[in-house]
Amino acid sequence: MKLEPYPTARREDTVDTLHGTPVPDPYRWLEDPDSPETKGWLLGQADLFSRGSGPQRFKSRIAELLRSGSVGAPAWRGGRHFFSRRTPDQEHAVYYVVEPDGTERALIDPMAIDPSGLTTLDAVQPDKEGRLLAYQISVGGNEESILYVIDVTTGERVEGPIDRCRYSPIAWLPGGEAYYYVRRLPSTEVPENEAQFHRRVYLHRVGTSTEDDAMIFGQGLKMTNYYGVSVSRDGRWLQVSAHEGTAPRNDLWVADLTASPADRPELRVVQEGVDAQAGLVFGRDGRLYVHTDRDAPRARVCVTDPAEPGFETWRDLIPEDPEAVLNDFAILDDLERPVMLVGWTRHAISEITVHDLETGERVGEVPTPGLGSIGSLAERPEGGHEAWFVYTDNTRPPSVQRYDARTGETTLWAASPGAVEVPAVRTSQVVYRSKDGTDVRMLIISPDDDTPGPRPTILYGYGGFGLSMTPGYSASILTWVEAGGVYAIANLRGGGEEGEEWHRAGMLGNKQNVFDDFHAAAEHLIATGVTTPEQLGISGGSNGGLLVGAALTQRPELYAAVVCSAPLLDMVRYEQFGLGATWNVEYGTVEDPEQFGWLLGYSPYHHVQESVNYPATLFTVFQSDTRVHPLHAWKMCAALQHASTGDRPVLLRNETEVGHGARSVSRSVDLSADSLTFLARHTGL
């Protein structure tokens, strides 16, 4: 097919010399979203996309499968519990309270707040008694959370709006009169390009001016730090943690609030300057439980005395498992023999085991509905014999399951509210070998029939930040497979599927391992007859957008089509935009000569070469994305349109009023349909 001419993009001879190396940047001008030239180019790309993407397919089926709705795990406070649910026709989930007599009331409905659908609910935190609810919302995808507090009984606003609360935890003190939270410094107090950073931990008394908040932590520390804060159920213990950006390590402090005032807590070091992560749970039995990957890359649970919380006092309760990663735990103590439930993922599949709380001895396991993903393992704060968790797999929408430790039974507590006819699919997990001989796992979802392959296939991956790709219900995956395609998800290094060592084998100077694992996954799918290079599409977003950007520049002959969403692609300048400065602990910094070498070595934008027949490529970006600036995709799109030969198109889908994260269902359906339509067209589905 003949390609339409691409919008003109001027090539500049801009070259930076870094550590003695010239680095060309011909499309630097596209970094300015407000320039008339950039706006004109984007209009041209929008016009090209609308003409060149063909009739949209799959939309009604994706929408139908999303009519399953969703449901979240309960948070218990006193006699009440709180949960979220999205019914088949809702654009966003609604947050509810259920009274002790079973009466259910909607507390926060994003569509009631804003019928346009552009407002999202970012976070919620009921107080310890369930009388007040703190919640955070943002508009148009910018994730700039605004904090409010409402009275649960009346629904009336108690306070807010409080701005600059992006990614802020809320740690209530007993009685609901005050809470700790994290807030950025005002932009007037920091350099212009640092307004996204500079967080501090404050104590706020409900109903008072934020001008009177007591700053309790963060002064003089790194501008890219993120802070965690929580208060034990009895109000005695405060814990504060600090992560430098997204680093897989944290510093941790505790304070005894009976021995020092809440607005001037005497924080004592639990760990500082240690290359490991730890989080604390203050048990109702007076013991301190430590969830850590220190000396245990797949994590363990230790116990100690909260009055002496240092590392030298930690004692193993649940030791590291050589094959499974310890994710979560819950304590059930209204039993003759109290137990700890421990949530694991074994090669990306979830399981829960039961252990004696005193000795850690394994005494059983929790029945689960299948081989899938388990999250939000929760108990009642005051203790009990029940736990709740969310379960999903490739064919089952999320449900909440209830486990009763007295009977040992798991029962369905709440299903996703919509009944949908899910297509029959076959799911298998395979092991393949990467370039350096490492064994990597991959989930393959295919039609449940015996028609021999090869078939049009989408290979998906992420490979970063220790995030695990685990089975889950996906309307777009099911739609693709029902139409006769195969969908494969590779558990690449850089993820957390095999613990922290697996993550580190794909970060910083090891990043090429991630791309090698992905190429090897593609080669395995081809060698085993699942697909062919002409039928193989790849897809990834954010760090996964970097992945597919590297894949298409390193091995263009291996892939027929690429969907690259909200990607990082200019790895030489990524730290200067969005939240990039918080990720140099994952990727490295161009300030350091060796790390600059790693980054330039794979930076997709800098590896686009003239006269290569690149795969058909669709960039999908979001104009309000405050994490990954769309300029990455804009510059790469211009470079590929200039360089690519052959008849495979390079298109840009630039969407306004949405960002990197949550969005309304109808917006999600449109994006999925456009992505699948593009991949189907260029893989022959």
TrEMBL record:
Residues 473-684 form the Peptidase S9 prolyl oligopeptidase catalytic domain. One of its GO terms (molecular function) is serine-type endopeptidase activity. Residues 7-414 form the Peptidase S9A N-terminal domain. SUPFAM superfamilies: alpha/beta-Hydrolases, Peptidase/esterase 'gauge' domain. Keywords: Hydrolase, Protease, Serine protease. InterPro entries: AB_hydrolase_fold (IPR029058), Pept_S9_AS (IPR002471), Pept_S9A_N (IPR023302), Peptidase_S9_cat (IPR001375), Peptidase_S9A (IPR002470), Prolyl_oligopep/macrocyclase (IPR051167). Residues 1-26 are annotated as: Disordered. Gene3D superfamilies: alpha/beta hydrolase, Prolyl oligopeptidase, N-terminal domain. It catalyses: Hydrolysis of Pro-|-Xaa >> Ala-|-Xaa in oligopeptides. Residues 1-16 have a biased composition (Basic and acidic residues). Its EC number is 3.4.21.26. Belongs to the peptidase S9A family. This is prolyl oligopeptidase. It comes from Nonomuraea angiospora.
